[in-house]
Specification:
- By secondary structure, the chain is α/β, with parallel strands linked by helices.
- It folds into three domains: 10-176, Thiamin diphosphate (ThDP)-binding fold, Pyr/PP domains (Rossmann fold, 3-Layer(aba) Sandwich); 197-352, TPP-binding domain (Rossmann fold, 3-Layer(aba) Sandwich); 358-538, Rossmann fold, CATH 3.40.50.
- The chain is 38% helix and 15% strand.
- The strands form three sheets. The chain has a six-stranded parallel β-sheet, with helices on both faces. A six-stranded parallel β-sheet has the order 13-12-14-15-17-16, with helices on both faces.
- Helix 10 (227-237) packs parallel to helix 12 (322-333).
- The mean pLDDT is 94.
């Protein structure tokens, strides 16, 4: 193989055009795993006119999960660069997760040379078609002058509602070649048509006539920058509301309208459901609300028309700028309706549910109940803390107990449910926010998929507290299999695996915790350490989460 010539000017190559487009789109960090096919991008990011911080990981999936976290937290696209072949195919699952979550991400992939295409070069495959159904755009730059323009277009696509990932690839010879123009501008997000005024008026009419309304605020409310409008809407109209995904924290847990802990009653007893910025998927019963046997009206408000549900009949819908729609609705409705008693009753149920959790949150005994971990963690979390969930049963408890005080402080895999996303998310979160406490709640099953990237946290000095809920089982599968078959197989892991020793071997700090009373002091040490710190907490395998849905 003849080595390509290296340009004296790192900004003269097509690879530099991709980096320049990323920088103009607001990118400050590139997440990657070293690969020769994309060396020109590294060269430009390292010594070019638009330098980027580069964080290299131990698996390409973690690079994309990190970029997804940046996209979710900052609401500007994250940027991952992966090498050709397996580097690109390793990105498929995290790109799919970003697609399901509506997270703005651009993934740039290396590719076999154009000059020898069709002759069987190393890792020669047409990669862009892999992403056509899970991205906003998927394109191949066949010439040097296309690289900058296609990368800029990818950033525009990723940041235009409905947001999501975009993929660009270019051959190694294309990236090393000179580019005619590396100054391609990055157009801003595409415009959206104004929502239909009659549709918004109909939503206002349905709400005014309601007596038991419920509002569900989803991830797109945060992504669309509509969190203040949503808070004002709920507050001014004295409505009850539930946060979903990144919508958690739009209403702080002390807000009188926050009834997340009364979720079952709210969803099954309402007479109108208003879903804003969330799909009508399995997480909210596929859009079935109200008492059994009733045709409860459902209103769907989305950031783009293609996100409006089509699998069920809607009483009304509107698409467009979510903040503008909510402000218009607030004006049209005018003030609180006849639902104050309903809202107050739901809030009382939510408070009662919280009080009923006290015995679990303080549980003692010889074995650690997973809820006790949250009983110790919650008082130690400030309002600015970022909490990341990566796991099944253990993180289900987090969904129940962790109620963020602010929006944009909660990360989970979303409806795609991809285990192993947590370490990448923690890397991205720390890159996006250098100062906030970050706690990764990691099931022991999920730990097996990505724990090597604790090495990345150590090498790049990215302090994160990792709490492993170690019940030595695939808890999310063990219980359902027992329920279906009367037994379970393939659901047990080795008891007491020393994930803390793995963390120590990788250069992090760690502790094994096997007594309830030791959890709090261990958390104090971890949070004060300023270093990647893993707590391996051995929990009771019999303490399964009492779930009511499996997503099937």
């Amino acid at each position: 193989m003849t080595l390509p010539s290296v340009a004296a000017d790192p900004d003269a190559t097509a690879g530099a055009a991709a980096v320049a487009a990323a920088a103009r789109a607001g990118v400050r960090t590139m997440f990657t795993l070293s690969g020769a096919h994309v060396f020109p991008l590294y060269d430009a990011a390292h010594r070019g006119a638009a330098p980027l911080r580069m964080i290299d990981v131990r698996h390409e999936a973690s690079a994309v999960f990190a970029a997804e976290a940046v996209g979710k937290l900052t609401r500007t696209p994250g940027f991952a660069v992966v090498t050709a072949g397996p580097g690109v195919t390793n990105a498929v699952s995290p790109v799919t997760q970003a697609h399901f979550s509506g997270a703005p991400v651009v993934v740039f992939g290396g590719r076999a040379p154009e000059l020898t295409w069709g002759r069987g070069a190393l890792q020669e495959m047409d990669q862009a078609p892999l992403f056509t159904t899970i991205t906003k755009s998927s394109a191949t730059a066949h010439t040097p002058d296309e690289v900058g323009a296609l990368t800029a277009a990818a950033f525009t696509a990723a940041s235009t509602a409905h947001r999501g990932p975009a993929f660009v690839e270019a051959g190694i010879d294309v990236l090393f070649a000179p580019a005619g123009d590396v100054g391609t501008a990055v157009p801003g997000p595409g415009g959206r048509p104004a929502p239909d005024e009659e549709s918004v008026a109909e939503i206002a009419r349905l709400l005014r006539e309601a007596r038991r309304p419920i509002v569900i605020l989803g991830s797109d409310v945060w992504a669309d920058g509509a969190e203040q409008a949503a808070l004002d809407f709920v507050t001014a109209l004295d409505l009850p509301a539930i946060g979903n995904g990144m919508g958690r924290g739009i209403l702080p847990p002390t807000h009188p309208g926050c009834v997340t802990r009364a979720r079952r009653a709210a969803l099954t007893q309402c007479d109108v459901a208003i879903v804003v910025g969330a799909p009508l998927d399995f997480r909210i019963g596929y859009g079935t609300f109200g008492p059994a046997g009733t045709d409860t009206p459902v209103i769907h408000i989305a950031d783009s028309t293609d996100q409006i549900a089509t699998h069920r009949t809607l009483a009304a819908s509107a698409a467009g700028d979510l903040g503008g729609i909510l402000r218009t609705l607030c004006d049209l409705v005018g003030g609180p309706g006849g639902w104050r008693e309903w809202r107050s009753g739901l809030r009382e149920q939510a408070d009662a549910a919280g009080a009923a959790d006290a015995p679990l949150l303080t549980a003692g005994g010889d074995l650690i109940h997973p809820a006790r971990i949250y009983g110790e963690l919650l008082p130690r979390l400030g309002d600015d803390a970022i909490v990341i969930g990566d796991g099944g049963d253990f993180v289900s408890w987090a969904g129940r107990f962790v109620q963020p005080a602010r929006p944009g402080r909660w990360l989970d895999p979303g409806p795609f449910g991809c285990l192993g996303a947590g370490l990448g998310a923690a890397i991205g979160a720390r890159a996006a926010d250098p100062d906030a406490p970050i706690v990764l709640l990691l099931g022991d099953g999920a730990a097996g998929m990505s724990l090597m990237d604790l090495d990345t946290l150590v090498r790049h000095d990215l302090p994160v507290v990792i709490v492993v809920g170690n019940n030595s089982a695939w808890g999310l599968e063990k219980g359902p299999m027992q329920l279906l078959y009367g037994y379970d197989i393939l659901a047990d892991l080795a008891p007491g695996t020393r994930y803390d020793k793995v963390a120590s071997a990788l250069g992090g700090a760690s502790e094994l915790v096997d007594r309830p009373g030791d959890i709090g002091p261990a958390l104090d040490r971890a949070l004060a350490s300023g270093t990647p710190y893993l707590l391996n907490v051995l929990t009771d395998p019999a303490a399964a989460y009492p779930r009511s849905t499996t997503g099937l």
